[in-house]
Design goal:
Elements: H1 2-23, H2 51-54, H3 59-71, H4 75-87, E1 93-96, H5 100-103, H6 107-125, H7 138-152, E2 154-161, E3 171-176, E4 192-194, E5 198-201, E6 204-207, E7 212-218, E8 233-237, E9 248-252, H8 270-292, E10 295-299, E11 340-344, H9 354-369, H10 373-377, H11 384-423, H12 436-442, E12 445-448, H13 457-469, H14 475-483, H15 487-505
Antiparallel strand pairs: 1-12, 2-3, 2-9, 4-5, 5-6, 6-7, 7-8, 10-11
Helix pairs in contact: 3-4, 4-7
């Protein structure tokens, strides 16, 4: 009997050993993040999907929720608006910077060409005629395109030609909301449809190699239910057949390879932001009720209606239709019928953890948006070093977004405009249409936007002076970084001001020398 028990125990040990050996983790991740045995990870169910499955197929839902959160204000609106204000500001201004050495131009000829080109550009860009809808100038459309891309995940820009009597240029641009680009839906069709040599993914047609071929554009917004036009989709070639110049621009920040549609800026924080809004509204409602309610009326008898029915004068009530609803107002005085008694009530009680909880959520939300909490909430309470560190950290994000926006929106539009200006003879650029390298040399342009701002201007000015002295930067770069100004224009203006001051004073200014 003892031997049988011993044999059974040995068999059990052998089975346990075989099980452990078969299920033993063989790699470090299997014992940690990839483990299915740890109690803390057993309930974590995940599934892998490509960019089409994870992003493009969910883009519509993300857009709806993102816009709803942004329209409600709070952190969901502060994040995109703060980024837009800093990236675009009052407008990202161009400064033509052509390759004069390659083009064989002297410095004087190069500067004259750049000044003339900038005048012509302003004739087009600062006029509403550049907008196909005739509503905004180019710099206002910058803000609209950038914010729309943040709110919806992406935005589209269509090029067109339209005559006008105010400028010599026919080029116009039209900003399209993300919903206008979609897959033509027929009975039983899906968001992704196969074509002869590729597929259409949420309105973007690609070939078998993944190159964008066409955009499917609706003649009206699919969300405009009151629009009398019948919804139709038109295929627009992504690039011109003869020039390969873009017919449409897609403003989007990609986060995965083979991704076609964008992700709204607040998408990673949608759940937290919605819960946060509900929490704030709940606290607000509780505090409002506390400010109105001083007494509750209780009774041992069943009454045909709520005792609070008479709290509001009948002529001032909003509705008497709902028997389960009553209205409150400040300073309620309620008559007490016989058989009723009064007791004090605190609808919510005081929430001592409210401030710390809100600040924690602000910190988490700001981290997801790459915006420091101080910048996100516009509340600066720290010292100079900490405040400057927050601004510098945020400004790195601004630089990245501005660089992407310049490449996707500003520079392509500038090149399209310059092509028309050269073709019509308004600007002289020999070889522009003959040699791609010549064209690139003529299209050189810097885009200057609003600067970071200043916490201690004197310290920052001294630091800039030191950087220039050590040849770590240039005066042109410092002027651009300081307030987005053009150093050359500053020098010309200062020369004019100094000359006029000399004329007014009738002599040499202090610190100046005569030759």
């Amino acid at each position: 009997m003892a031997e049988e028990r011993k044999s059974a125990a040995e068999q059990a040990r052998a089975l346990r050993g075989a099980y452990r050996k078969a299920h033993a983790p063989k790699m470090s991740y299997q014992r940690h993040g990839a483990s299915w045995r740890l109690n803390s990870l057993r309930g974590w169910l995940t599934a892998l999907g490509d960019a089409n499955t994870d992003i493009d197929s969910n883009a519509s839902t993300l857009r709806e929720r993102s816009r709803d959160l942004i329209s409600g204000g709070g952190l969901a609106r502060s994040g995109p608006k703060t980024l837009t204000t800093n990236v675009v500001g009052w407008g990202i201004q161009p400064k033509p910077k052509i390759d004069g050495e390659y083009l064989g131009l002297s410095d004087e000829a190069r500067e004259a060409w750049e000044r003339h080109t900038l005048r012509e550009w302003n004739l087009w860009a600062k006029n509403q005629m550049c907008d196909a809808a005739r509503q905004q100038n180019f710099y206002q459309m910058q803000e609209l395109a950038f914010f729309s891309a943040l709110a919806s995940g992406d935005a589209f820009v269509a090029f067109g030609m339209k005559e006008n009597k105010r400028t010599p240029y026919r080029l116009v641009i039209r900003i399209l909301e993300a919903d206008r680009i979609g897959t033509p839906m027929s009975a039983g069709s899906s968001l992704i449809q196969a074509t002869a040599d590729g597929m259409i993914i949420d309105g973007i047609e690609i070939d078998r190699e993944g190159a964008v071929k066409k955009y499917w554009v609706a003649n009206r917004s699919p969300l405009a239910e009151a629009n009398p036009l019948t919804l139709e989709y038109i295929a627009v070639d992504a690039f011109g057949s003869e020039t390969d110049m873009p017919n449409m621009l897609h403003i989007v920040n990609y986060e995965r390879p083979e991704q076609r549609r964008g992700v709204p800026f607040v998408a990673p924080s949608i759940e937290v932001l919605k819960q946060f809004d509900r929490y704030i509204n709940s606290e607000l409602a509780g505090n409002l009720m506390r400010s109105m309610l001083a007494l509750f009326i209780t009774s041992e008898e069943d009454t045909p209606k709520f005792p609070m029915d008479e709290a509001i004068d009948p002529e001032e009530r909003i509705s008497d239709d709902d028997d389960m609803q009553f209205e409150l107002a400040p300073g309620i005085i309620q008559k007490l019928p016989a058989g009723m008694k009064v007791q004090t009530v605190d609808p919510t009680g005081s929430n001592t953890a409210f401030q710390s909880f809100v600040e924690t959520l602000e910190q988490l939300t700001g981290s997801a948006m790459e915006i420091p909490k101080e910048v996100l909430t516009k509340k600066y309470e720290s010292n100079y070093t900490a405040a400057r560190s927050s601004k510098l950290d945020f400004w790195q994000v601004v630089r990245v977004y501005r660089s992407h926006f310049n490449d996707m929106f500003n520079q392509p539009i500038y090149e399209a405009w310059l092509s028309e200006a050269v073709a019509t003879g308004r600007i002289d650029a020999p070889g522009f249409f003959d040699d791609p390298l010549m064209r690139q040399a003529w299209c050189g342009c810097m885009w200057i936007g609003a600067s970071m701002g200043h916490i201690d201007p004197m310290k920052e000015a001294n630091a800039a002076e030191k950087r220039v002295q050590l040849n770590m930067t240039t005066e042109e770069q410092e002027a651009m970084e300081y307030n987005g100004n053009d150093w050359s224009e500053n020098v010309i203006q200062r020369r004019r001001e100094m000359a006029e001051r000399r004329d007014m004073d009738g002599g040499t200014q202090e610190g100046e020398t005569t030759t």
